[in-house]
Specification:
The chain contains 8 helices and 11 strands. It is of the alpha/beta class and 236 residues long.
Length: 236
């Protein structure tokens, strides 16, 4: 209801922006006693412009990743599957991404678990294609993502096997395809990590893009490329 209300009150602004991103944040609210029957969480709904033109060139060219030694999630009480605002590793990774983009570096930063396995990137899930199979990080060791679940479901459609296993940087560097899944762009192929070119067989990724477009009933690739052309960004 809160989200619907924000959309209704901002219809003119949304129409002017063209594409927007809706983000919901839920806190525990102001409480002194968690058993207080008057306890109410605080719900924050934010709208922000979605700059689709940024993703326009990436569907064909592919995305670049980089790594940081300071992006491991803390081990302990905070489960890596919890999408909490105090995920300091993801924040540090995001800030590194901002620095890298200033110098033409990669768009996303890989985030690791305490054991050195790949968890995700700072704002997207990651999976690989190896031996014709779609391989995703273990569910207990990565942030749960709706888009990653969508990719897995679409892969099973044409009979592509989906499995979970610990993923390392070595696995990503030696995969047939490395794929990102995120809310703003849906799905992208990774073409390099820290400047190291990756193999791109272009077998599973194109299938998933076509299936995704059919699922949502909107060619989001063409939409993003059109936004890029309007913004004067070369699509390729």
């Amino acid at each position: 209801m809160a989200t619907a209300g924000v959309i209704e009150r901002n219809r003119d602004e949304i129409a002017a922006a063209g594409d927007v991103w809706i983000r919901q944040t839920v806190t525990r609210g102001c409480i002194s006693d968690p058993l207080d029957p008057e306890f109410r969480p605080t719900v924050i709904v934010k709208l922000r412009r979605l700059n689709l033109h940024v993703f326009g060139p990436l569907y064909r060219r592919g995305a670049d990743l980089h790594v940081s030694l300071l992006t491991s999630h803390f081990a302990g009480a905070m489960d890596p599957r919890a999408k909490a605002a105090n995920r300091s590793a993801a924040v540090r990774a995001d800030l590194k991404g901002v620095r890298m983009r200033r110098f033409g570096g990669g768009e996303w930063t890989l985030v690791y678990n305490a054991d050195g396995t790949v968890s995700e990137t700072h704002s997207a899930n990651v999976c690989i294609v190896a031996g014709g199979r779609l391989v995703r990080p273990l569910r207990r060791a990565a942030l749960e993502g709706v888009r990653l679940e969508t990719a897995a479901e679409l892969a099973r459609g044409p009979g592509i096997e989906v499995e979970e296993q610990p993923l390392t940087l070595y696995d990503a560097l030696n995969s047939d395809e490395t794929i990102l899944c995120g809310t703003s762009f849906s799905i992208l192929l990774v073409v390099s990590v820290d400047g190291i070119p990756l193999r791109r067989l272009d077998r599973v990724y194109p299938q998933l893009v076509r299936a995704w477009i059919e699922l949502v009933g909107l060619d989001f690739v063409e939409q993003a490329e059109e936004r890029a052309r309007i913004a004067g960004v070369e699509v390729g």
